[in-house]
Specification:
The chain is an alpha/beta fold and 325 residues long. Helix content is 29%, strand content 26%. Strands 3, 4, 5, 6, 7, 14 and 15 form a seven-stranded mixed beta sheet that branches. The chain binds NADP nicotinamide-adenine-dinucleotide phosphate (NAP).
Length: 325
Amino acid sequence: MADSFNALVLTAPGSPEVRRLSEAALGGEGALVDVLYSSINYKDALAVTGAGKIVRGTYPFVPGIDLVGRVVGGNGDFAAGDTVVLTGGGLGERFWGAYTERQVVPSTYLLKLPADIPPLWSMVVGTAGLTAMYSVLALETHGVTPESGDVVVTGASGGVGSFAVALLAKLGYTVVAASGKRAQWDYLRGLGAAQTIDRLRPGRALESARFSGAVDAAGGDSLAAVLSLLKRHGSVAASGNAAGHVLNTTVFPFILRGVNLLGIDSNTAPRARRVEAWGRLSALLDEPMIRAIHTGTVSLVEIPAVCASMIAAETHGRHVVNPAM
Ligand SMILES: NC(=O)c1ccc[n+]([C@@H]2O[C@H](COP(=O)([O-])OP(=O)(O)OC[C@H]3O[C@@H](n4cnc5c(N)ncnc54)[C@H](OP(=O)(O)O)[C@@H]3O)[C@@H](O)[C@H]2O)c1
């Protein structure tokens, strides 16, 4: 690679521009990586548009919380040429992120990409797909099985939601996809949803019990509604806040139905959990799933427009970033 390379730089909150950077500008400690692909998550959309306070470092700042790349200079843990993946862990929040052709990244959460997952697939998955996988693992741990009854996925057309629908369906669950985008209901059935319904709205503290489990990527009123609809000893894996961060509920689902509210934080997931999740994904991902969820691949220049659409809840599936495009 030439001495300088392209990066999307935030000069201030919500002010992105593509600039040429040199390796000397990267600083930091860890592995020097040529970025093959990144992706666009809701958190990236908040950072790039300035709609949310995601960046904890100083400006100018390179955003982007996911990357797959090739190690350039080996260090103790990785050899030159290794294909590595990093999702969250402070990337694009506390330290410079993935929207660049080259980056120095700490090795704390850096993993070798399983050989049977192509680099492009890993970024179709990214933080969103991994969060869906963690959610499924949490439901399994709490005894939600395909035999327990229907499971509901909220924010279903988004990144977390799409993978949750596809992974649960592949595992044999009967999936109800709740999505505000009727235009994407066929897409969701294509991913394996048995039924599509509108976004859930809160009603009474306890509604007729309908679902044995849930992956809630929306939060707010959506999560309150899910809690009221879970069967006895059902569980919801909660990861999102696109519908709001305030949760108005009562104790009744917990004390009268033994419902479990399972928090998911992909950002700080321990290394062993990450390895487990990528291992499960190795077995579950397939070409039709990836092709269906992969909405498109964009260049660094195109990132801000996709981020603005995502904040307006107009995107579906997953956008990959190719910084060399
Ligand atoms: N905890 C974690 O570790 C973790 C990891 C990744 C993401 N997240 C969070 O999970 C959420 C989803 O992330 P993502 O990357 O999948 O984003 P995304 O692709 O933008 O998906 C979000 C989806 O939420 C739904 N939604 C948006 N606004 C809504 C509203 N006002 N009311 C109800 N539903 C609404 C939409 O689905 P429909 O149009 O289909 O209803 C939208 O597609 C975000 O809040 C993100 O911050 C958390």
